[in-house]
Design a protein that fits this description.
Blueprint lengths: L22 H16 L6 H34 L3
């Protein structure tokens, strides 16, 4: 038994059950930086950050659901002899 943790080779078990909660701060940070660079009218800055955050989170959730359905429903049909 080693005490070292090897990143990218071993999952970090402490955060594994709740990794998806890190999506919100990640997307929020990206939206804040992106909108700060691209926004022409800073009166609507926080509104556009909220909209972009919602769009990205919704998109990632929709892709996850679509891939889950594909794996659960389509791939078993393709693997039948």
């Amino acid at each position: 038994m080693t005490l070292a943790w090897t990143p990218f080779l071993e999952p970090l078990n402490a955060i594994q059950p709740t990794w998806y909660l890190l999506l919100l701060p990640l997307v929020l940070g990206i939206a804040i930086i992106y909108r700060a660079i691209r926004e022409e009218n800073y009166a609507v800055y926080w509104r556009s950050v909220a909209i972009m955050t919602g769009q990205v989170v919704f998109g990632i959730v929709a892709i996850a659901i679509a891939l889950g359905l594909f794996v659960q429903l389509v791939i078993p049909i393709l693997n039948q002899p």
